[in-house]
Amino acid sequence: MTSLHANTLEQFIKKSKGILIVPAKDKIKDTFPAAIALSYVCKKLGSNSGVYLLKESPEQLKFLINNKTDSSGLALVEGIIFLGSEPHDLKIDTNEMVFVKNPFRTFILNSRAAHNKSSDSPKNYILDISASSVSEILARTIKSMDEELITREMATALLTGLIASTQNFRLAVRPQTLFIAAYLISKGADNEKIAKQLYKTRPLNSVKLWGHALSRFSYDNNKKIGWSFIKKDDLKNKNENRSQISFILNEFKNNFTEANIFVLGISHFDYYLAVVHAKNDDYLKTFARKHKLSIKNSSVLVRASKNGNPESLTQKIVEALKKTL
Questions:
Q1: Mapping DSSP to helix (H, G, I), strand (E, B) and coil, where does residue 20 land?
Q2: Among residues 247, 257, 176, 188, which one has the least CA distance to residue 217?
Q3: Predicted confidence (pLDDT) per residue in 23-37, tens digit
Q4: Structure pTM?
């Protein structure tokens, strides 16, 4: 279905040489970054575009703006894309912008099932009620359309919307949300810049470490196990490790509620350590008994005296856990 949506959006953009992108004002921290990303897509597909805003963009999001994304230079509009809302009247001076209505062409991307499809105007929809945000929907759609379209700037904008809409993954998210976040990081999304702008009071090293863990996240949907790992090079110094690791553990434990178990492997300076946390002790009893480990606060610690490859060591623990479930 995503490939069909991607093709529909691509054809809409190519056939509308002037596109006005309208982010929903009540979800602006999600839809404005998505609008910025979509403006890059329009440019790459050969269409002029502009982002429509009634008010000035939020201060936290101004780092995403360049002088080619607003609607001031868009004289002719052949299509409108609404992000996060139904079509609605726009307060635009028609002396500055001309709308072509033959027919009036609209496109909607939304993460909520709040559409009224009885309107007489022909519309195109991309609707995903399971998605965390419009930014997530757009990221998956562009990925399916053509991965070569995704630039570092576009990936940064989409990850910004995804992080802002989920409160840095503090809201309950599905595995697909974390997967698309990891994908955007792999495409060059500047997680450090996003952290500086959105979470200036949070320790930067902790946020950067969370970015590393997120980019390596894996999930087994059948066993409901999520896992990731931290490399030795990711850690700045021994004194900061404990607080930073606690931050990562809390992000997984509190926000990724679909998993019954998650594993975080840490390649320390002198040894390898894995923290295995579960929703309750019952998920860990067989594993702990077999390997003579103690359960505390629904967690067990697995330590290796030799500091080997954290990815393979973490994978071994995950496989051992699966055999006990």
A1: strand
A2: 176
A3: 988 888 899 999 999
A4: 0.66
